[in-house]
Specification:
With about 240 residues, the chain is mainly β. About 10% of the residues lie in helices and about 40% in strands. The protein has one domain. The chain has one helix and 28 strands.
């Protein structure tokens, strides 16, 4: 995650906190959890809270979802705007559509057939995209694991510390990037792991700003001449990583 992305994330957090405080002042309190019923049709209505979770029922169609301390959970076949939290997870069941999914401290889990129009990102946490998901933007973390299974990613796949697992025919249209760790206090010397599993397609570049352990399935058409990569080839159903 580059400096501009970090700044944008912090700006979003500030806007979220300020908007929540204004809501508290104007409406008398938005501190608890929120539950949106099944089949709710309110695409222009946003839901936010400060200390609490947001749960959206099945087959709903609503606007943006945002909280500071709490999780965001969306049940199957629902459509939402941006789903954002600072301290908490974002969980989508199968067939969910969203503009974006973002957290700072927490994980993101996407069920089968989810469609995210823009970015899916966290700072401290993991992201998992299950079968037939579609990610319109970047798929990224700073400290955590990225797992994509039979998923199409139209932006970059980016990490600094951790693991990238691209499995079972996942397609990456842009680049796979491991950024150089420039943090003064972060002394993590462990090499990140990147796995390009069976039938994975990478249409962009592979850029490693630090030493990486790279595992490539024999079905993947990638040039072995990759800078800063310790490459291991594997075949069949092997999992040497």
């Amino acid at each position: 995650m580059n400096i501009n992305t970090k700044v944008n994330t912090m700006n979003k957090i500030l806007v979220l906190i300020l908007s929540s405080l204004f809501s508290l002042t104007a409406c008398g309190g938005f501190l608890g959890s929120k539950t949106i019923a099944d089949n709710t049709e309110a695409p222009n209505k946003d839901y936010d809270t400060v200390n609490g979770s947001i749960k959206v029922g099945h087959n709903a169609n609503v606007g943006d979802l945002s909280t500071v301390n709490g999780s965001v959970k969306v049940a199957s076949s629902s459509k939402v705007g941006s789903a954002e939290t600072v301290n908490g997870s974002v969980v989508f069941e199968e067939d969910v559509s969203a503009k974006s999914a973002e957290t700072v401290n927490g994980s993101i889990k996407l069920g089968a057939n989810c469609n995210i129009e823009e970015d899916t990102e966290t700072v401290n946490g993991s992201i998992t995209a299950n079968s037939r998901c579609n990610i319109g933007g970047n798929f990224q973390t700073v400290n955590g694991k990225l797992t994509a299974i039979d998923t199409e990613i139209h932006g970059n796949v980016e990490a600094v510390n951790g693991t990238i697992l691209l499995l079972d025919g996942t397609i990456v249209h842009d680049d796979i990037i491991i950024k150089k760790n420039k943090g003064f206090f972060n002394k993590n010397k462990k090499k990140p792991v990147v796995v390009l599993g069976k039938n994975v397609v990478v249409k962009g570049d592979i850029e490693f700003g630090r030493d990486v352990k790279l595992y490539i399935h024999d079905s993947v058409d990638i040039d072995d001449d990759i800078e800063n990569a310790e490459i291991t080839r594997f075949s069949g159903d092997e999992k040497p990583y």
